[in-house]
Amino acid sequence: MNAPALRLPLRPELRPDSAQAALASLTLEDGTAMHGRGIGAAKAVRGEVVFNTAMAGYVEALTDPSYCGQILVLTYPLAGNYGVPPPRRPESLDGPYESGRIQVQGLVVQNYVEAYSHHAACRSLHEWLSAEGIPGLTGVDTRFLTKRLRERGTMQGWLLPSSKSGHEARQGAAAVDMREQVFRIVAPRGPVRYGEGKPTILLVDAGAKDNIVRSLLGRGASVLRAPWHADLAALAGQSDGILIGNGPGDPKDLSPLIGQVRSLLASYRKPIFGVCLGNQI
To answer: How far apart are CA 80 and CA 84, in angstroms?
Structure first.
């Protein structure tokens, strides 16, 4: 028998400052509802609710294509305390960003810190989320939420501002198709070459984060970055090894890539390795 859904009240100690003035909520598909205050954009979204246990690195996590289409929960209680660095140059690989934009559908944190402090920061987390149209929720027990997800598995969630709550808002909440659309969103349009060193690594991109490229370049290699749907057999001849990168979604939905990799394993006589999603492929 299913356990009853829980409805957790708003934490009373939240300050009603400018970035946290509007009430918002996260509702899981099992009926669990958590109430807090909104940060970022006042927007209704839907997505798989997942969590990240790192103590730092929210800039990297939010821009990691592996989280595209998902609502990300940070288990570390403080978020925003060191702000956000300046936007990177177009088409660059500058860190700490892992891609050119925020990839998540929404963000959930326990305690958002408006007054950031860092020598490289130029804006708050709230300002960054707002600029990119991403909603967030603060003032909820993220440890409880993480335990709920661990016990019951991945669930869909609806992150809704109070001004857009109700059945109609849930029906109209923005979402990403996690079967095919998500892989088209995160992949580059065509092959891109970085560096002129040796060896040359063919990076198969179904949502690979930029630090993979930065790491390979830092070790003297050159990188040929190609979308997962490219003709990999034709590109393999230009490489000394193939790396299948990370990405979002379920690898079973990448059957065309699985077929290409199966053929390469039978014919390509150089190393093939994978990271995260790529290892599953």
So the answer is: 8
**Strand ranges (DSSP E) for the chain?**
7-8, 23-28, 33-40, 45-52, 70-74, 78-79, 106-109, 111-112, 135-138, 155-161, 192-194, 200-205, 222-227, 241-244, 272-274
Apex 108 CA angle, 41 and 156, nearest 5: 95
End-to-end alpha carbon distance in the chain:
36
SS (H, E, C) 169-231: HHHCCECCCCCCHHHHHHCCCCCEEECCCCCEEEEEECCCCHHHHHHHHHCCCEEEEEECCCC
Q: State whether residue 255 is helix, strand or coil.
A: helix
Q: Predicted confidence band at 132 (pLDDT cuts at 50, 70, 90)?
A: very high
Interatomic CA distance for residues 87 and 100, integer angstroms? 9
Domains of the chain with CATH codes: 7-171 (3.50.30.20), 183-280 (3.40.50.880)
Give the single-character DSSP code of 113. -
Share of the chain above pLDDT 90, in %: 84
Helices and strands, counts by H and E, the chain: 9, 15
**Amino acid of residue 189:** R
* Residue 1 confidence (pLDDT) above 50: no
Q: Which two tokens stand for residue 281?
A: 């492929």
Q: How far is CA 251 from CA 7, 43, 88, 174, in A?
A: 34, 29, 30, 23
What phi and psi, each to the nearest 5 degrees, are found at residue 160?
-130, 130
Residues contacting 215, CB < 8 A, separation 6+: none
Interatomic CA distance for residues 257 and 121, integer angstroms: 39
Q: Is the pTM higher than 0.85?
A: yes
